[in-house]
Fold this protein.
Amino acid sequence: MSGQLNVYDLIEGRSQNTQKIISFYEDYVLIHQKSFAEITHDVVVMTKKLSSQLVKNEIFFVSLPNSYDFLVVFLASLKAGVIPAPIVSADSMMKSEYYDYLDQLKAYTQIQKILALENHRTELVRSGFEVISIGETANGSNPEQFLNNPQKPKLLPSHLHGQIAFIQFSSGSTSDPKGVMVSHKALIENITMIRLSLELSENSVLVSWIPFFHDMGLVGSLLTAILTPFETHILRPIDFVKSPLKFLELSAKLKATVWVGPDSMYRILSKNMFQEKLNIDLSSLKVCLCGSEPVLLDTFNQFKSLAAPYGWNPQSFIPGYGQAENVLGICFAPMRSHIKTHEKNKRQIVSCGKPSRDIKAQILDENQKLVKDGIEGLIWIQSPSLCSGYLDKDDMFKANCLGSWFFTGDIGFIKDEELYISGRYKDLIIVDSKKYFSVDLEQRVWNLIGHDKHVKKVAVVGRGQIGGDESVTVCVEWLDFLPIFSFRVREDFTNKIIHNLKNQFKIGKNDIIYTGVRSLPRTTSGKLKRYLIRDRVSKKQLKYSLWNIFWRSWFLGMMK
C-alpha cells in the first residue's frame, strides 16, 4: 500500500456496518460492545475534541487502560493528524512509580500534553502536564486553550509530517525506552503480514488482555483485529493477572480461535491449570501466538501437558519474533506444524520460522561479516515495515543501521532458512570465554525453586564487565510476611542453586540475593531490566534484606 493511506481510512469504509465487532470487559464482565457504525460516529466526535487542543503533527501521551475510550482516541488521532504515544495507565502501577515514570518520559521526550484517566487530572497538572480533556465539556469551544500556552507543542520532525501514525516506546529492557516512530505505511504493511502469516479471517475470534501501550497489544491484537476485521474481546491486564482461570473459561465460552501473548502468559496459565480441575473445552483455538519474550521449550511442554486434556491442539502454538522497530512482527513459525528446536551450546532453541513476506534476515559476526548457516551471531533485518527512526535520537537509530539493514539487538542463528533467537545481546554473560544467556540461567534456577509459594521472580546477571564477567549473581524476589521463620528454606534453596551452577561459575552464598517483591527493576510490560539489576548489584544497592522482604510483602502483598 502506498501514498498517505491511513489505517482509519480502511475503517471508515465500514461506517454503515451495525454488527457488533469488538467487546470490552472489566473483571470479566462485559462493559461495551460496539459496531463499526458506533465506532466511526464516536471517532468523528472525538476528532473535534482533539483538534481543538492539539495542532497537526503534535505528539501527546495517551495513558489509558484497555478500554473503548483508548480505541476511539487512537483512531481519532489518526483522523485528526495528531500523534498518539501510548504509555502505561495509572491503574497499572503504584502511584509513586507511575509519576516517577511520567517524569522520566517527559524529561526524555519533552512531551508536555497527556490524555489520562480523569481522576488523575489534578496531580498531572501539578506535575507540569497539560491535560487533554475528552469529557462532555471538551467540545472544541476553546481552540486557544492549548495553542496560547507559552510552552511550544512537541511536533514531529518536519520531514515526517503527515507520515507518522504513532510513537511506540520500546520496552526498555536493555536501555532507556526509545520512542519508535511508526509510519502509516509501515503499520499497514506489518498488519497485512501478520494477518496473512497467521491466516486470520472474518471467522477468527480473539480474546486478549495484552496492554495497548505494548506493541503486541496495540498492533498484534487491537489494530489487526479491527482491520481484518474479526470478533474481538478485550480484557484488562490486571484481570488476567488476578484470575487466569477466568481467562480460560471466557475463551472456552466464546470459542476463541486466537490468543496472543508472551511466554510468561503460558507459564501463568500452566501454573493455575496445575492447581485446579476445570470444565472447559479449548479445541476451538487455532492460533496461540507466543512472542515478546524468548519462547522456551519448557514452557511449551508444560502447557501442552496441562492443556491437551482440555482439547488444546499443540499445533496451534505459534512461536514468533518481532520488535517495535519493525512495528511488531518479523517472523512466525508455520501454521499447523509441530514446534521445531535446534540444540546450541547444550540449549534447545525454538524456531520462529522464516521471515515473513518481504522481510529479510541475516546473521553477522561482531566484525559485520556474514556467518555460515547454523552459526550464532547478531541478527540484522531488512524490512518494508521498519520504523522511521527514534524520536529525537536519530544518531542512535543510524548507529544500528548498515545500509538498509537494521541490527535488532538480538543474538541468534539461521538454520534451513528459519530464524532461531538465542537472546538479547546485552543480556549475554561471558565467563571464561563461554557464553550464557540470563533467560536460560533464570529458567534453571526457577526449575529448582519456582515451585515454592514464596518465590515470585528470578533474575540472573553477570558480575564484572559486560563481555568478560567473573561470575553471576542470582536475585530472588521473595514474598513472605514473616521471613525470619523461612530462613532454613532459603538456606536450602541457596545450597541447591550453588550446587546447580558451581560447575560453570565461581559462586558462593553471597552471590544469592533474596529481596522483596517488586524490588527488581522492570519495564512497564513486566520485562526485567537486567542492565539496571546488574548496576544495582555492583553498587550494593540491591542486597539480601529481611526488612525489605518483610515490608514489601506486607505493603505490596496486601495491596495486591
